[in-house]
Amino acid sequence: MVVVSDTTTISNLYLIDKLWLLEKLYQEVIIPDTVYRELKKLRKIASDNAIQFELTSWIKVGEVHQKDLVTVLLLSLDRGEAEAIVLAKEMNADLLIIDELKGRKYAKQLNIEVIGLAGILLMAKQKKLINSVEQTLNELKDKAGFWISNKLFDTILGLANEKQI
Q1: Residues whose CB falls within 8 Å of the CB of residue 8, separated by 6 or more in sequence, listed in order
Q2: Which of 43, 90, 100, 161 is deepest in the core (most CB within 10 A)?
Q3: What is the CATH number of domain 3-117?
């Protein structure tokens, strides 16, 4: 399975020490160079100490070739999202990990399957990799500055069978 990711999900999971979820779910994740550079700049929210993100054996950097398509997407998206979408298209990826709504819309227009952090947490619970989606979402909010609307939060908990919808 070919899985490409933008920065957000990787950085959020990294900041709560749950990046390993992506390895367990997908075995390998490919990121464009811009995403790698963004990840190298990570700083822990609760600390002034910089965290040095390093590539793991299962996160690979892929090269984006269609620079013209990246340029078009840059009119609406940041570079990491644009390059991740183009890389996913070029690699004929099975899945693109992206949360940004505009980015998801463009990816779907290019016939790229997408999943966001919430979907990943639901899969992780289903595969018994985490016990509680609610606990993990709260940890993301507290430690990584993850924002989610109350309505979506409740919907996700309902899908995780952790709350009545």
Answers
A1: 98, 99, 100, 117
A2: 100
A3: 3.40.50.1010
